[in-house]
Design brief:
mainly alpha, 79% helix
């Protein structure tokens, strides 16, 4: 019985999320961070907002979902810019953008035709982010 209680307590402790910073806290952190750290923080913001956008689209709250979606693309583009500028976190940013694109495609296919244009635009912008990062990492003619 004691073992069962100990296991239940341990599993409950793991289920409680750690003190993860909010989107607002991360946005404030970006302005104070070093250039090399800004890309990582921007990716975190974009991913959190993608999860929020997904939740809002699932709840059919399209206006709020599009606000979160704007943050996804804005912060993914900022992450790209900071990663290229600092030559740090480029690969991780590209991988994150690929994952966000995949998730947006899943959301896109769950919506009606009339609700898809903002997602299509976001997907195109994220694909440009990926292309820019790949171009920066794999420059042609450099040997």
């Amino acid at each position: 019985m004691v073992l069962l209680c100990a296991l239940m307590t341990a599993s409950a402790a793991k289920a409680i999320p750690r003190d993860e910073p909010t989107v607002e806290q991360l946005k404030a952190e970006v302005t104070a961070a070093k250039v090399g750290d800004k890309a990582k923080i921007c990716v975190q913001i974009a991913q959190k907002q993608l999860n929020e956008s997904d939740r809002l689209y699932a709840a059919s709250d399209y206006e709020k979902a599009q606000v979160a979606l704007t943050d996804v693309t804005t912060y993914a583009e900022l992450a790209r810019d900071y990663a290229i500028q600092s030559h740090k976190y480029e690969k991780q940013t590209e991988i994150a953008a690929r994952g966000m694109t995949r998730k947006l495609n899943e959301i896109l296919h769950s919506l009606g035709r009339d609700d898809q244009p903002p997602l299509e635009d976001a997907i195109n912008r994220l694909e440009r982010v990926r292309d820019d990062l790949q171009s920066a990492m794999f420059k042609k003619g450099v040997q």
